[in-house]
Every structure is written in structure tokens, then in C-alpha cells.
Amino acid sequence: MTSVVVSLILILALLVLMVAAFWRVYEKAGKPGWASIVPVYNTLVLLEIVKKPWWWLFLLMIPIVNFIIGVWLTNLVSKRFGQGVGFTLGLIFLPFIFWPLLGLGDYKCQN
Fold first, then answer.
1. Model-level pTM?
2. What distances in angstroms separate CA 100 from CA 18, 38, 87, 89, 96, one per listed residue?
3. Amino acid 82: pLDDT
4. Distance in angstroms (rounded) separating the CA atoms of residues 38 and 41
5. Axis-axis angle for helices 41-49, 2-28 (nearest 10)
6. How many C-beta atoms surround the C-beta of residue 3 within 10 A?
7. 69 touches 56 (CB < 8 A)
8. Per-residue pLDDT for 111 more than 80?
9. Residues contacting 91, CB < 8 A, separation 6+
10. Angstrom distance (rounded) from CA 102 to CA 104
């Protein structure tokens, strides 16, 4: 029973960390932080951050294409904050480390 409680506390702590990280990423990009927690709208705002058209949202609904577009969007976010491919790979494969680094660290969004 205690391992379940500990697991739930860790999951909740990770969730709070990720919400805070995404909130700050959006704020650093000049968008409202609350937009990061609203489903669908958060993707539209992310598309604005990386300067892509709203209809890309539909591409994210197509199987296989959504994977490619998702990786591309992650790379564009990384570039927007002055980072390269290595950071993009970190955002994809170790998101619980790299998104908080991006949001809570000293990285600045470049116009």
C-alpha cells in the first residue's frame, strides 16, 4: 500500500513540474501561461510560437504524419529558444528533464 502512495506522490510531483515547465515556456514565448493547460488550444498557441499556420493542427490528427509533425514542432521549439538538434532529442526522449530545463532555466525565446 505504501508503495502505491509513494508512486502517486512521485507522479503528482512530476505532473506539477511539467505543468510549471510548459507554463513558463509559453510565458517566455510571450503567450499566456494558462494556454499550456487547455487541450487543443495549447497546440494552436504552440503553432503560433513556432510561427506555423493553424491548419497544421489537422496534420497532427493524421496517423504517422502526426509523429513527423510532432518531432518537427519540437525541433522548431528548440530552435526558437536558440538550441540545436541535441536539445531537440532531449526534449523528445527525456522530456521530464529537458522541458523543465527549457521552461525553468535561463533559456530565452528568440524572435
1. 0.92
2. 7, 19, 12, 14, 7
3. 95
4. 6
5. 40
6. 7
7. yes
8. no
9. 74, 77, 78, 98, 99, 102
10. 6
DSSP 82: T
R_g (Cα) of the chain, nearest Å = 15
The answer to whether the Cα torsion of 3, 10, 92, 89 is positive or negative is negative
| Of residues 25, 47, 28, 50, the one with CA closest to residue 36 | 25
* pLDDT tier for residue 1 given thresholds of 50, 70 and 90: confident
Within 8 A by CB and 6+ apart from 60, the residues are 43, 66, 69, 70
Cα–Cα distance list, 48 to 8, 29, 45, 57, 107 (Å):
34, 10, 5, 11, 19
State the virtual CA torsion across 29, 99, 79, 51 in degrees, nearest 10. -40
